[in-house]
Amino acid sequence: MRPLINIRHLERKSVPLQGELTAAELDLENLDELIHVSDSLNYDLEAEKVDQAILVQGRLSLMLECECARCLRPFQHELELPDWACHLPLDGPDRVDVVNDVVDLTPFIREDILLEFPQHPLCGTNCKGLPARKPGRVKQSSGASPSSEVSSPWSELNKLKF
Ligand SMILES: [Zn+2]
Questions:
Q1: pTM for the full model?
Q2: Read out DSSP for 86-127?
Q3: Are 133 and 156 contacting, i.e. CB atoms less than 8 angstroms apart?
């Protein structure tokens, strides 16, 4: 459910906004090979009118399904913005789009959530990465069969997933 603010309602008092935004509504699907958004974003916000602007403040949280950039292990990473704030002018050159008295907060939430995405997701700060391969054991371009005894990162990953 998109967080929509009716600016008429703000004339008298602040308006609470609570709900969930799906990955599809946020357009956060298939953005990154190592980061997937499988769950909805939770928002718990309050909007008020301050002078000729809307001020929105509150909490955003989103669970990310990541793959470690070093060892490929899947792990979860919770993005939490406990003091998110957004200032939306209703006047001037930067004024926000208002359609039928309604402002959609979705693009502003999306923008700030994207900035919080890990640039280089790691399962842990001390991740050692994949076990070093012993020289001489790895066959080069000899068409290793799927039943090969050599443990690859992908077979390790498959064991974790199934
Ligand atoms: Zn790792």
A1: 0.77
A2: EEEESSSTTPPP-BTTEEE-HHHHHHHHHHTS-SS--S-TT-
A3: no
Q: How wide is the angle at C-alpha 10 spanned by C-alphas 7 and 15, nearest 5°?
A: 110
End-to-end Cα distance, the chain = 33
Q: Under a CB-based contact definition with an 8 Å cutoff, are residues 88 and 116 in contact?
A: no
- Element (H or E) spanning 154, and its range? helix 153-161
CA of 129 to the centre of ligand 1 (A): 5
Q: Find, among 18, 26, 7, the residue nearest to 117 by Cα.
A: 26
Ion ligand 1 — residues with CB under 5 Å? Answer: 68, 70-71, 73, 123, 127
CB 2 within 8 A of CB 22: no
Q: Ligand 1 mean position to 75 CA, how many Å?
A: 9
Q: Are strands 35-36 and 41-50 parallel, antiparallel or unpaired?
A: unpaired
Convert the pLDDT of each residue in 86-140 to its tens digit.
Answer: 999 999 999 999 999 999 999 999 999 999 999 999 999 899 888 776 666 555 5
Cα distances (angstroms) measured from residue 117 to each of 11, 25, 65, 114, 146: 35, 17, 11, 5, 35
Alpha carbons 76 and 79: distance in angstroms, whole number: 10
